[in-house]
Amino acid sequence: MSVIIELRPEAGPALIVGGGNVALRKARTLAEGEIQFTVIAPEVVDGIRLLPFVSVVERPFEAADIPGQPRWSLVLACTDDRDLNQAIGRLARAAGIPVLVADRQAESTFFTPATIQDGDLKVAVSTGGASPTLAKYIRERVVTALGPGWGGMVHIARVEREERLAKKRGQRQ
Predict the structure, then answer these.
(1) 13: Cβ contacts below 8 Å, ≥ 6 apart
(2) Between β-strands 14-17 and 74-77, what pairing exists: parallel, antiparallel or unpaired?
(3) What span, in angstroms and rounded, lies between the C-alpha atoms of 137 and 147?
């Protein structure tokens, strides 16, 4: 059993170890959420460098990159080295930091769902890491079923809720 949560930028920076295409997909997700993140890898694909909110450190990962006290809100191990991903997962879990080990679901403490975003509306589809491809397929089906424009409805709902709450606060005073 798992829970889908949203991470706010105030949670703190994230760390991605790896600079290839898997790291790029995860980096895009963090950038879309306006999460500050650092990518550490000997080589980094250009797409990562072009993202907002990223700091790139071009060098091999070192164990000291994951300190004993949580410095990172999340760690994502996205290298093509099984042993390195496993070590990163171990270090992050020991430090109490949620970790995604891209090549081994059982070593991860969280997964990134396939999401749809329209303004402030966000819908997440997750298979609990079982099949990211299936989650993306279902996401596309949901997009088609919903159609556009729901973000505007969420904005209206937010404004109305804030007005109701302000009115309640005014009645209590």
Answers:
(1) 35, 36, 37, 38, 71, 72, 73
(2) parallel
(3) 16
* Burial of 5 (C-beta count, 10 Å sphere; 0-12/13-18/19+): exposed
- Angle 47-53-55 from CA coordinates, rounded to 5°: 75
Please identify which residue in the block is written with the tokens 């949580």. Answer: 70
Question: Which tens digits make up the pLDDT trace of 54-97?
Answer: 999 999 999 999 987 778 999 999 999 999 999 999 999 999 99
CA distance linking residue 168 with residue 58, whole number of Å: 53
Encode pLDDT of 15-51 as tens digits: 999 999 999 999 999 998 899 999 999 999 999 999 9
